[in-house]
Backbone:
């Protein structure tokens, strides 16, 4: 049996995917829901592989590929968000109404609140990938949390 | 008592991760190889091998790849561009519409909406101010220079509509979502396009209008309200041709046939019996024929794949004059999407075919042939608008 050969480009791309994929997927899932978001992630990474020489030289490839994925997701016929149900057990306990309440937020509000509180991004990181000012992220976040609190009838920070 | 909202959201991450598991490098590369829309050369990693080997090769790969890897695309010449080409007037974006009416910001980009005016510098100097054009119909094209089907493929029809309708209708193309002014300039200069282009360097225009995907066309009526919003080539191109007054069935070219019913887009390994001679579409081979000038007949099964990608295939019999053959060479060089070849036992002297379009001619010097190529090469009839006609099989004369 002959030893399979692996080109260095392939290995470098694999390393790149390991490093970049989680952030890209989180951003696209937060924005488009898990189904479209994951598809868009795969499409964006496929684009990255096709244009590897160009993408690898970029200062912010994740931001670029986010736009590629976003364009892909937007081009699909609008699909329902299909946010998954809350975990049934575990600590802390999650309100079963949380997914529905998240679906009622605006797209940007939901993206911001999921990225910051579910995926633990900083406001600055969110501002960079969504291409808005940090103050805008702050505004979306405040409105999103206020709406969720009203919907779930939880009290502030307690 | 319910735990606080932030902690619930953090716990919800598990559900999100389960619903959207990671995408591996293999999956991405396999998608590249299988995706029908993507007609690029692909080096797909071998299944299973790459992931296992990658861990050991992390360091070696990063170093080695710099030495060994060759790009698919040739390096473009560098054009020097001033560092800042765009300034967006912040005040203009704050609540003032194109015709002075109050406009919400960011806009809901939908028919009937008042959208904010903006002002930006043109790539070739000067300022474009949308508010100057209140009272005129305005067509705005949002594109990205980094992607063919959301960029350069939109330019030819946009230019056609611009040629027909300006100066009554105002046209402007906005390079956005991560634009590169150098790349945009090169593409525009190479294609000889003359419509105004602005670079949306910080995405301020896209943000102000809520544009998140390209290509996107926005038509604005004489009162400064959105008339229509068109997403993607499939929605946008028919409308742009319509604006230009171009009939995409026949292009108004006498003798063009366009009634061929439904044509299969299936791939097949075998020989196909086509209903037309030469065929105008139908089931075809996996690989398309590279566009260009051929001196020997080519397989119709490959040519049909090229037609699917928007090629015009000019076929001819054995008795063409040198002058006619030279004219066909010129046509083959005039577009990335023209195939020229002899056709065995062709009952006519010259036949031009595009997907579901055909024109029979007595001479290769007939002006209608040029018109046919201008409209249908990478034209609106293509089932896969924007796909390439190179990177397939066959070596044309040049």
Residues:
């Amino acid at each position: 049996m002959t030893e399979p050969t692996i080109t260095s480009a392939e290995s470098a791309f694999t390393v790149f995917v390991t490093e970049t994929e989680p952030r890209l997927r989180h951003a696209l899932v937060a924005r488009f829901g898990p189904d479209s978001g994951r598809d868009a992630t795969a499409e964006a990474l496929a684009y990255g592989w096709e244009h590897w020489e160009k993408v690898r030289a970029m200062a912010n490839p994740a931001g670029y590929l986010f736009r590629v994925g976003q364009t892909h997701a937007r081009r699909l016929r609008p699909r329902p968000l299909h946010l998954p149900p809350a975990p049934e057990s575990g600590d802390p306990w999650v309100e079963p109404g949380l997914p529905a309440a998240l679906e009622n937020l605006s797209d940007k509000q939901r993206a911001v609140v999921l990225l910051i509180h579910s995926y633990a991004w900083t406001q600055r990181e969110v501002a960079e990938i969504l291409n808005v000012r940090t103050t805008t992220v702050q505004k979306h976040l405040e409105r999103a949390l206020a709406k969720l609190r009203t919907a779930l009838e939880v009290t502030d920070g307690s | 008592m319910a735990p606080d909202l932030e902690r619930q959201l953090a716990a919800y991450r598990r559900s999100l991760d389960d619903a959207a598991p990671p995408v591996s490098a293999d999956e991405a590369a396999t998608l590249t190889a299988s995706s029908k829309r993507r007609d690029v050369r692909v080096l797909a990693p071998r299944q299973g091998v790459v992931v296992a080997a990658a861990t050991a090769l992390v360091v070696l790969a990063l170093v080695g790849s710099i030495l060994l890897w060759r790009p698919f695309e040739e390096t473009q010449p560098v054009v020097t561009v001033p560092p800042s080409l765009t300034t967006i007037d912040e005040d203009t974006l704050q609540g003032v519409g194109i015709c002075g009416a109050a406009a919400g910001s960011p806009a809901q980009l939908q028919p009937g909406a008042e959208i904010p005016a903006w002002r930006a510098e043109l790539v070739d100097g000067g300022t474009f101010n949308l508010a100057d054009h209140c009272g005129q119909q305005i067509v705005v094209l949002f594109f990205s220079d980094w992607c063919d089907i959301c960029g350069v493929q939109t330019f030819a029809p946009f230019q056609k509509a611009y040629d027909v309708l300006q100066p009554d209708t105002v046209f402007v193309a906005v390079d956005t979502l991560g634009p590169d002014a150098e790349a945009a300039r090169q593409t525009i200069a190479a294609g000889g396009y003359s419509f105004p282009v602005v670079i949306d360097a910080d995405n301020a225009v896209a943000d102000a209008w809520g544009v998140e995907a390209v290509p996107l066309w926005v038509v604005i009526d004489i009162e400064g309200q959105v008339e229509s919003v068109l997403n993607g080539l499939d929605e946008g191109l028919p409308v742009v041709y319509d604006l230009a007054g171009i009939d995409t069935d026949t292009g108004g070219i006498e003798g063009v046939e366009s009634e061929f019913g439904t044509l299969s887009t299936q791939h097949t390994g075998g020989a196909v019996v086509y209903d037309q001679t030469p065929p105008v579409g139908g089931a075809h081979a996996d690989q398309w024929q590279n566009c260009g000038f051929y001196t020997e007949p080519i397989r119709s099964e490959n040519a049909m794949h090229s037609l699917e990608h928007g090629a015009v295939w000019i076929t001819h019999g054995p008795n063409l004059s040198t002058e006619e053959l030279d004219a066909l060479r010129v046509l083959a060089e005039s577009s990335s999407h023209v195939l020229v070849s002899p056709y065995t036992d062709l009952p006519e002297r010259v036949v031009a075919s595009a997907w579901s379009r055909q024109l029979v001619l007595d001479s290769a010097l007939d002006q209608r042939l040029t018109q046919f190529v201008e409209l249908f090469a990478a034209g609106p009839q293509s089932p896969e608008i924007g796909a390439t006609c190179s990177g397939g099989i066959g070596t044309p004369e040049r």
In short: The helical segments of chain A are 8-32, 34-50, 52-56, 61-75, 98-103, 107-118, 123-130, 134-152.
